[in-house]
Amino acid sequence: MPIYEFVCQSCHTPFEKFVLSARDAKDILCPRCGSSSVKKVVSSFSCCSSRSGQGGMPTATCGTTRFG
Ligand SMILES: [Zn+2]
Description:
Layout: E1 3-8, E2 14-18, H1 22-25, E3 38-41, H2 44-52, H3 57-63
Antiparallel strand pairs: 1-2, 1-3
This protein binds zinc ion.
């Protein structure tokens, strides 16, 4: 989902914006004060989802099955 979180460095207002590419991120303006001094924030949930993807639970469950 290409929705990034930003924080305005002028009024410190956090907001989310739909960004298609990194180029568009440079043209992001603060919806509150209209300042272009916004900082991109790395979403925390994206970090967690990548971790859960490495879980070995399905493999462990399959390993318990014995054949002969
Ligand atoms: Zn602002």
